[in-house]
Design goal:
Belongs to the BI1 family. The chain is mainly α. It has one domain. Helix content is about 80%, strand content about 0%.
């Protein structure tokens, strides 16, 4: 799941030339023309139209995100609460299949970005990815007590809401922090691989593992702020933004921020069965 976030943020940080939205760019040119002919009322009309487009984009992103989270819960809850540990072990192939399918789907979306901007292909890819992601979350959550899962969900919800409000209200522009966050994500992945190797060699890594999870919580908390401000864009006075056709990738980035934050919190504070 961390690899999925890596791919999504790699696209956001490097490939997406559409952080600067086409509509505001066009509107800026029109406004300059209007000012030249001293037609300030026309310039204001174009600015208002641009704002409405961005508001519609934001509504679409958060609507998609809501459906994704509801689908994830609907798939994960039965695996977490209604299935025995013996069944999960006997059907571990379902977890491996789901992990493979999420990576395949993510790679397809990264390599064929035009499809992620075309209806209904973009929604189909997103539905398949989210359904298999729900299976992965269900299997991982089933390793912990239901109290731990509820606690992690509650903490994730509070952090997400607080960071969303902060991103909307803050006068600081975090949209330029993408390369630094992406570098931190790479370090986190390497750190995780290093811990795994030490664990396989029989070295005690408990405190390193806890530090790894804590760092993961911090990074994805910042990513929520970063991605939220990219979604708000110039409407909130931010320099960079998602293009209006990239609502699927915008929702996917925020979705993966939430899922990874939840899993890191679960590993950090959860009690295994």
């Amino acid at each position: 799941i961390l690899a999925q976030a890596f791919l999504a943020q790699a696209v956001t940080a490097q490939t997406f030339d559409v952080h600067r939205c086409r509509v505001p760019e066009f509107a800026r040119i029109i406004c300059q023309m209007a000012e030249t002919i001293e037609d300030t009322s026309f310039a204001q009309m174009v600015k208002d139209a641009t704002t409405e487009v961005r508001k519609g984009f934001i509504r679409k992103v958060y609507s998609i995100l809501t459906v994704q989270l509801l689908l994830t819960v609907a798939v994960a809850v039965p695996l977490t609460t209604m299935v025995s540990q013996a069944w999960l072990i006997a059907n571990a192939w379902l977890l491996y299949l789901s992990l493979a399918m999420t990576l395949v789907t993510m790679c397809a979306m990264v390599c064929c970005q035009k499809m992620t901007r075309t209806f209904p292909t973009n929604y189909l890819f997103l539905f398949v990815f989210t359904a298999f992601e729900g299976v992965c979350v269900g299997f991982f959550s089933a390793q912990y007590t239901w109290q731990s899962v509820v606690l992690a969900m509650g903490m994730t919800t509070v952090i997400f809401l607080c960071m969303t409000v902060f991103a909307w209200k803050s006068t600081t522009d975090f949209t330029g922090f993408g390369p630094y966050l992406f570098g931190a994500l790479i370090v986190l992945i390497v750190f995780g691989l290093f811990i795994s190797i030490l664990s396989l060699c029989g070295v005690g890594v408990y405190w390193a593992y806890m530090a790894y999870n804590l760092i993961g919580v911090i990074i994805f908390t910042f990513y929520i702020v970063y991605d939220t401000q990219l979604i708000i864009g110039e409407w909130g006075g931010h320099k960079h933004q998602f293009g209006i056709d990239d609502y699927v990738f915008a929702a996917l980035n925020l979705y993966l921020d939430i899922i990874n934050l939840f899993l890191f919190l679960l590993r950090l504070f959860g009690n295994r069965r």
